[in-house]
Amino acid sequence: MHAASMLNIQIPKLCATDSLEAFGSCRMCVVEIEGMRGKPAACTTPIAEGMVVTTQNEALRKLRRNVMELYISDHPLDCLTCAVNGDCELQDMAGAVGLRDVRYGFEGNNHLGAEKDSSNPYFTFDTSKCIVCSRCVRACEEIQGQHALTVQSRGFESRIVAGDTEFMSSECVSCGACVQACPTAALTENSVIEYGTPSHYRITTCAYCGVGCSFRAEMRGDQLIRMVPNKDGKANQGHSCVKGRFAFGYATHKDRVIDR
């Protein structure tokens, strides 16, 4: 997958991201490799000299679309009212694979009625929109090293859980790595839910301490919506603590002294 991206060849993906180790769970990035049986995942298959890879043909297109159908058959179809409409990787990939219909319907067993976890003051976990790609779990482990999240049960019963009950009673430190990693609206900042997705951003430096973490201050108009750790930041390399990520209210606090 990385080799393809270097050649500007985009392969559909959901569980893969450049900030996490390859996992190979979503099966959206399947490819065909000459001399190899089956259709391996591009994200977990190392490149080798002389390898002949097909990233797009009719068989792959059909397989990816079938996989996406399964995801969408257990996902709320509320895109128009969803907080991350237009900023959702699942939505983007459904369009990329040309999904126009879901043959399986929405009447069978599903997770659409799952309850939300609103215990954290900074973000909401909507289980009904989770595709169990494990990106949040891996971000918590690989980036933060906190191990607050895990996948509970197996198969259709698999779900992401934080501790025994909810986020606020778990080992979560509210760093936001899981929120940043989530490809759907399962984990969404409360500020985005309230004000909508940002439309533009400015690169800035966190003012809380002397580390010098770099952030994208994402805004809608002049309203600051969220602070997203900058992947190109030399000090933080796309990560942050809870203060830099969520405690940005001081920027517009009425008691702040501003030199005009």
What would your notes on this structure say?
By secondary structure, this protein is of the alpha+beta class. The protein is built from seven helices and ten strands. The strands form four sheets. Strands 3-4-7 form a three-stranded antiparallel beta sheet. Among the domains are: 2-96, Ubiquitin-like (UB roll) (Roll), CATH 3.10.20; 198-253, N-terminal domain of TfIIb (Single Sheet), CATH 2.20.25. Helices cover 21% and strands 16% of the residues.
List the helices and strands and how they pair.
Layout: H1 2-6, E1 32-33, E2 53-54, H2 58-72, H3 89-96, E3 116-117, E4 123-126, H4 135-144, E5 149-152, E6 159-162, H5 177-181, E7 187-189, H6 190-195, E8 200-205, E9 214-220, E10 223-229, H7 242-246
Antiparallel strand pairs: 1-2, 3-4, 4-7, 5-6, 8-9, 9-10
CATH class of the domain at 2-96: Alpha Beta
Question: Which bin fits the share of residues in helices?
Answer: 10-25%
Class derived from helix and strand content: alpha+beta
The N- to C-terminal Cα distance equals 49 Å
The CATH architecture of the domain at 2-96 would be Roll
Q: Helices and strands, in N-to-C order?
A: HEEHHEEHEEHEHEEEH
Any idea of the CATH topology of the domain at 2-96? Ubiquitin-like (UB roll)
Radius of gyration: 20 Å
Low-confidence stretches: none
Report strand %: 15-25%
Overall body shape: globular
How many β-strand runs? 10
Question: How would a crystallographer describe the biggest sheet?
Answer: 3 strands, antiparallel
